Amino acid sequence: MIDRKNYIIRKSVKLSRQVQIIGANIDRAFVVATPVSPKTSLGFIDRFLSTAEAYRIPGAIIWNKADIYDESVRAYIAETKALYEPIGYKVFVASSVSGEGIEELKAEMAGKVNLFSGHSGVGKSSLINYLIPGLNLKTAVLSSQHQKGVHTTTFAEMHSMENGGFIIDTPGIREFGTIDFDTYEVSHFFPDIFAVSKGCKFNNCLHFSEKDCAVKTAVDEGRIAFSRYDSYLSILSGQDSYK
Ligand SMILES: Nc1nc2c(ncn2[C@@H]2O[C@H](COP(=O)(O)OP(=O)(O)OP(=O)(O)O)[C@@H](O)[C@H]2O)c(=O)[nH]1
Ligand SMILES: [Mg+2]
Ligand SMILES: [Zn+2]
Fold first, then answer.
1. Whose CA is nearest to atom 24 of ligand 1?
2. 121 lines ligand 1 (CB under 6 A)
3. pLDDT tens across the length of the chain (243 residues)
4. Ligand that comes closest to the CA of residue 198
5. Which atom of ligand 1 is nearest to the CA of 129?
6. By the 8 A CB rule, do 208 and 233 touch?
7. Of 130, 133, 131, 125, nearest in space to 150 by CA
């Protein structure tokens, strides 16, 4: 590791707080996810993306460990692409083993400050090692018992790329606690829901049990994904975690 090129941001395990403190410097927040080993739920991804919205940081998804996907996992990944890209969240597929998707990611990150977050063990540090040859960040195998990460990265650190970009590696996070959203503001951080909500009868509609709710109609008609609505309701109801 070349010390002079590294900038320690802060010690923390909660993404929301990290973003708060270094938010002004971040051009894009990537949630690094894996469909298996360990599994990242769409609920977790939606909490991440809505938090990024709250800080006005463009969010994106990186599905890592593509080298171990079978046909059915590939099909699932394609579905998530069809779900998230129309909302405005790019979906990347990558592998720090086969190198799949790496060039595309590099191009995307050039000249920008990029944050990598996600569960422990999804391969954030491994990906960064591949994106910045010679960096040698510490990585570790999953726990054999639970196939979960072992919290190898312990503080957020920024690394410079050859193309003028920067990547901030962060410690793995277990779950998102309730973010301090105002109840009526939650839908503002779900662009797909917000766009439709203009058609609701009541302008203070929470899209829960109100009459003539355009959001609920859109969910029923499949124009808003049920998983997104479910994530919205979960945040609205103030659950501490959502898996
Ligand atoms: N098959 C496969 N394994 C990978 C890939 N990327 C990372 N891994 C493995 O996943 C495990 C965890 O990788 P890390 O890079 O330490 O994960 P991390 O997200 O940085 O984890 P924390 O620092 O604990 O948050 C290691 O055993 C890696 O070798 C990948 O693309 N494919
Ligand atoms: Mg790490
Ligand atoms: Zn409504």
1. 151
2. yes
3. 333 333 444 434 454 444 434 444 789 999 999 999 899 999 999 999 998 888 888 999 999 999 999 999 999 999 999 999 999 999 999 999 999 999 999 999 999 999 999 999 999 999 999 999 999 999 999 998 888 998 999 988 889 999 999 999 999 988 765 566 788 999 999 999 999 999 999 999 999 999 999 999 999 999 999 999 999 999 988 754 433
4. 3
5. 15
6. yes
7. 125
Residue corresponding to tokens 């726990």: 143
Residues with CB under 5 A from ligand 3 (ion): 200, 205, 207, 213, 215
Question: Which is nearest to 115 in space by CA: 181, 187, 29?
Answer: 29
Residue of 39, 96, 169 best suited for mutating to test ligand 1, as the one with most atoms within 8 Å of CB: 96
Q: Output the residue whose Cα is nearest ligand 1's atom 27.
A: 141
At 226, list the tokens: 């049920």
Give dist(CA 153, CA 85) in Å, integer: 30
- Output the pTM of the full model: 0.90
Is the Cβ atom of 149 under 6 angstroms away from ligand 1?
Answer: yes
Ligand 1 binding pocket includes 68 (Cβ within 6 Å): yes
Identify whether the C-beta of residue 234 lies closer than 8 Å to the C-beta of residue 227.
Answer: no
Q: Give the domains, in start order, of the chain with CATH numbers.
A: 3-169 (3.40.50.300), 183-236 (1.10.40.50)
Rounded distance between C-alpha atoms, residue 90 and residue 87, angstroms:
9
Of residues 225, 185, 219, the one with CA closest to residue 84: 225
Beta carbons of 46 and 228 less than 8 angstroms apart: yes
